Structure to design on (147 residues):
C-alpha cells in the first residue's frame, strides 16, 4: 500500500529510486565486467545518465501505475523490465551482449529487492539476496575465466 502523498511526489520517489538502482547497477556491471576481462564498454557520462533517466522513468511510471491504480496486475511489471533491457541494448548495441543486459537487470533487481527488504526490516532476506547474487557471480566468473 502506498503512503498517502501527492501522486506526483509518489512518481518522483519511484523515479529517484529506479534511477539510483540503475546507476548503481551500471557501476557494478562495469566493475564485474572488468573483473572477468570482458570487452564491455560504457557510453559517456552524459549519455549514460540520459539513458538511465529515460529507463528509470519507464520503470517508475509503470510501478506507480500498477501500485496506485491496478495493484492486482503486479505480474505486468515484466513489460517495463523488458523495455528497460531493450533501451540499454539499443543504446549499447555494439558493445554489450545480451548477457550484459541480463546482468544489469539482475543487479538492479537484487539492489531494489534488498533495499526494500532492509526498509521493511527483513534483514535476513536482504542478506540472502546479496549472498545469492554473489554466489552466482562467483560461479559465472569461474566459468568465464576457464573458457
Amino acid at each position: 500500500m502506498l503512503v498517502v502523498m501527492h501522486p506526483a511526489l509518489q512518481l518522483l520517489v519511484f523515479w529517484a529510486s529506479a534511477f539510483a538502482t540503475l546507476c548503481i547497477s551500471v557501476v557494478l556491471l562495469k566493475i564485474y565486467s572488468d573483473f572477468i576481462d570482458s570487452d564491455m564498454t560504457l557510453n559517456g557520462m552524459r549519455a549514460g545518465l540520459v539513458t538511465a533517466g529515460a529507463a528509470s522513468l519507464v520503470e517508475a511510471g509503470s510501478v506507480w501505475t500498477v501500485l496506485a491504480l491496478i495493484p492486482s496486475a503486479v505480474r505486468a511489471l515484466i513489460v517495463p523490465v523488458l523495455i528497460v533491457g531493450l533501451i540499454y541494448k539499443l543504446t549499447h548495441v555494439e558493445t554489450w551482449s545480451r548477457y550484459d543486459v541480463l546482468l544489469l537487470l539482475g543487479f538492479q533487481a537484487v539492489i531494489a529487492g534488498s533495499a526494500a527488504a532492509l526498509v521493511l526490516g527483513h534483514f535476513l532476506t536482504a542478506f540472502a539476496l546479496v549472498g545469492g547474487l554473489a554466489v552466482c557471480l562467483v560461479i559465472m566468473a569461474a566459468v568465464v575465466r576457464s573458457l
